[in-house]
C-alpha cells in the first residue's frame, strides 16, 4: 500500500497465462497489467491497467505514483464495467 495525500493506493501485478510479445518499432515487446485499488475518503475505486511502454522509455515502475521516467500508454478499465 502507498499513501499519497489523502489516498491509499493498493497495486497488484497481473500476468497473462501465456504472455503476448509485441513486434513494434516504437513499443516495448511486453504488455504489462496491473490491478489498482484506490481508497479515497472511504470510497473504493478499482481499475485494471493495460500498460504499453515506449521502446526508448524506462520500464514501467510497477506503481502509478512514480511515472516520472516512464513514457507509454496506460489503458484504464474500471472494474465496475466502465472505461
Characterise the protein shown here.
The chain is mainly β. The chain contains no helices and 5 strands. Strands 1-2-3-4-5 form a 5-stranded antiparallel sheet, with no helix packed on it. A hairpin with a 2-residue loop joins β1 (2-4) and β2. It is globular, with a radius of gyration of 14 Å. It starts with a strand and ends in a 5-residue tail after the last strand. The model has no long low-confidence stretch (mean pLDDT 91).
Helix/strand layout:
Layout: E1 2-4, E2 7-14, E3 32-40, E4 43-53, E5 72-78
Antiparallel strand pairs: 1-2, 2-3, 3-4, 4-5
Task: Give the proportion of residues in helices.
Answer: under 10%
- Backbone CA Rg: 14 Å
Mean pLDDT: 91
Gross morphology: globular
Query: What structural class should be given to the helix and strand makeup?
Result: mainly beta
> What is the β-strand count?
5
Report the end-to-end length measured between terminal Cα atoms.
24 Å
For the sheet with most strands, the description reads: 5 strands, antiparallel
Provide a concise account of the structure shown.
The chain is an all-beta fold. A 5-stranded antiparallel sheet has the order 1-2-3-4-5, with no helix packed on it.
Characteristic key phrases:
83 residues; mainly beta; 5-stranded antiparallel sheet; 5 strands; 0% helix; globular
Amino acid at each position: 500500500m502507498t499513501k499519497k495525500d489523502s489516498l491509499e493506493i493498493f497495486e497488484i501485478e497481473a500476468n497473462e497465462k501465456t504472455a503476448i510479445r509485441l513486434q513494434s518499432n516504437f513499443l516495448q515487446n511486453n504488455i504489462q497489467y496491473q490491478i489498482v485499488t484506490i481508497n479515497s475518503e472511504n470510497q473504493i475505486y478499482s481499475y485494471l491497467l493495460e500498460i504499453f511502454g515506449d521502446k526508448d522509455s524506462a520500464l514501467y515502475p510497477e506503481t502509478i505514483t512514480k511515472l516520472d521516467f516512464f513514457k507509454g500508454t496506460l489503458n484504464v478499465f474500471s472494474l465496475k464495467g466502465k472505461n
